[in-house]
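Structure tokens please, single chain.
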Amino acid sequence: MINMKHYFSLLVLLIFSSASTLAQTNAPLKEITAGTYHSKHENGADEWFLYRTDTPTWVIISSVDKTDTDTYVEVYYEGHKQPFLRNDDYKNAQSRVKFLAEPNSVYIIRWRGIYAETGYDWDCIEEDLRPGEHHSTAIEVTDETMEFQIPPGHEVWYKYVSDGNQWVGMESSNY
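Here you go.
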């Protein structure tokens, strides 16, 4: 037999949890580009921002060197309930994240109000991609023998256009 008291408590918890998630995802979003912004966190509320780009770019979201306030940031893909990136205390109590923004994608930035007792400034910084960091900036390979050094943990894009009458050989070594 189901204990109605526990059943009711569970039902209230599920409803509250769903309402809380809806309140977070339906919060008004301020669209941002590169620049300095201010989060107020009135009554400890989280603040939500929307970022998008037409070209691939590195994006840095950071409160470092902007405030002494303890900050916490999360980044979501549009439509996802879990952040793909988050940071608390990158430097002292400030937060910083860096990600590669793909063209025509939407990113949601959430500054948590959990620790903030006052408002603070933060930056959205865009950095150009270096050659090979993305398929759109692939390094062109010639017909000659070429050597490239790739730092550990990095991915580098190359492109080679063949005239169709030759073999292409690639070799990779780890030393």
